[in-house]
Design goal:
Number of helices: 6
Helix content: 25-40%
Distance between the termini: 41 Å
CATH class: Alpha Beta
Radius of gyration: 16 Å
Low-confidence stretches: none
Largest sheet: 7 strands, parallel
Strand order of the largest sheet: 3-2-1-6-4-7-5
CATH superfamily: SPOUT methyltransferase, trefoil knot domain
Structural class: alpha/beta
Amino acid sequence: MVGFEIYQGVLAIGKIPPPLSLEKILTASAHPRFFVAMDELANAENVGALMRNCVAFGASALIAGETCSSLFLRRTVRNSMGSIFKLPVLKSPNLVQTLGELRAHGIKCIAAHPRQDGKTLSHANFTGDCCVVFGSEGHGISEKVLAACDEAVAIPMLNEVDSLNVSAAAAVFFYEVNRQRGKA
């Protein structure tokens, strides 16, 4: 009935909430704003885990680019452990344009990207309004979305490891955001 061999003994029916506009999200969010954006995330489990991290670390909203997996797939909702219903979300028809609108509102867009010439996480400033952008599991952030960001920030890693799962990377970034804001 639930479509999975392993489940936690709970069955629920949820209604997809009506879509929110960027203006409504901006109006409802307190300063300093902490937004999260996703570019080309295709794996529903990763999207759900990222949502759960957003709620756990107090993100103001989650913005999904036009090439991301649906925010309300059964696997996404299951992996979010219901967090999707506690998080304002926006399905952007054009992530580059949405990032431009955020920047026009004074929100710094920071790409989570292991670019060699970018800053490392401890040198980035997350104390003001910001949006942290995460890229796909295979390719990272697309060039056009990367170009729409103010800066690229990398997690320093050892032993020739060049990337983490997106939800693990997000948890590291979100902890740093909260640490700098005195919430860690």
